[in-house]
Amino acid sequence: MAMNKIKSLRSIVMMKEMVRVDGQRTFAVGKAKKGGKGAAADAPKASTLSKEVKSTTVVGANILKEGADPKVLPDSEYPDWLCHLLDKRPALSELRRKNIETLPYEDLKRFVKLDNRARIKENNSVKAKN
Question: 0.85 exceeded by the pTM?
Answer without folding.
Answer: no
